[in-house]
Design brief:
mainly alpha, two-stranded antiparallel sheet
Length: about 475
Amino acid sequence: MDMEPGFVVTAWRNRQELLQLRQDLYNTSDKIYRQKAVNKVFAWRLRKPEGLPLLLDSTADIVDVVLQDERAGLAHNALRLLYATAISRFVTGLADTQIELTRDRPSWFLPGKALQLPLALLEIRHRIVHRHLPSLAELKRAAAESLSWLWEWYWSQLETAFTVSSANANANGEVAGENKKENEHEEIGVETAQVLKEKLQSLLKTYLKDRKTEIKNNRGNHGSNAVSKAVSSYTTSFNIVNTGSSSSPPPQITQLVLNTLLNPKIMLPTDRKLGTSMSGAFLIWTPLLLAFCIGLDTTTTSTTPATIPLSTLLSHMLRAMNTPSTRSPEADPVREGWHDWVLHVLTSPEWETARWAVGGGVVDEVLMSCFSKPTLWNLRVAEGVLGSEGLGRNKEQWTILLDAARGVEGGYGDMDVDVDVEEIEEAVVVGEAVVEGDRGEVGEKISGPVKVLGMWKGRPLGWVPEGWEDDE
């Protein structure tokens, strides 16, 4: 007896509707599309309460919280609770089903990769449930990291999953003729990822050559010819994956452009040394980055959807600046190069139009990110931004935060403190070691216990203050 074919009832009509939902949920440049996508998921949830995939459901919850945060209609603590609920629900739900996913591994999962959440998300969830609620800045970072993880492990795998299922269906003769065209379109989306990356790399090489020629001919102030040619080539090469139903390119295109363009070998001078000027790199790449961020069609002088939102560009630059390295942070020319790029985008006149297009909130976002994780280069970015003339609002408050982050507080400057200089000189550092830096150029000291001097007098062990008596 032949087995009857198995059917799976889904909340979405077809796979194209699910792909469109993905594009709208990750549409960072238009809140309307994101809100419509969230509302659609909520409607699906009412129709099929137990039938939505956990990762799809969690994405909608987190995006909904981000949208409410952007509307600025909720109190600070209410936002913390919303973020905490969405993140905890996602992490807990995934942890509960992780064993099943590991045992019954989908065929379209990436080979050699284990399904595992970042440790930072597990720590945040633990703090939400068992300890003090994390700060709003920490919860925002966790929400962004959750959306990135969901994109990598769920949303970016949809085409591959559809292709695998279509291939199995074709082998069994169960694909109807009306679905053939749709399957062919999805297979194109999977197969062209590497092809599009190669085309983008070729586009950047051509742009670099044309741009250098413009600069040599003293026509390089705006780079209009090189940018026009690059934008035209980009539009031709990437229109096959843009459905045109949304106001911005698909998120996978944005990610592809970012990963290819924001490469130290492209954006930073070759063999850059510490303290080297970045003016040449700014002159070459600023016109193209502006075209991607502002969305200017140089052939018609009309405005088109931005390929890379300015806030996304800055967040990726900050992430690259804080990427772990074998070099000492203070002597790392790559980190310094990304630091210079961030300051150039936030303070230079060339980027004023792009900053104005998204409002002044982008500067506050960068400062908040820097102070939430006060690393050496993050604080240097904050210092550079606060030292510029363009920042007008909240400058005093941000400066107070900068001083606090660096351990400089205004109340201690006038205090008279007795310091025994001879005793300081006699203080011995125990367990001092030197770790060789990259190529032996820089050494970083790692110190063990240090004798700390304070405004107190030494007392012998077992000393009891006057007025205390032994218990009888």
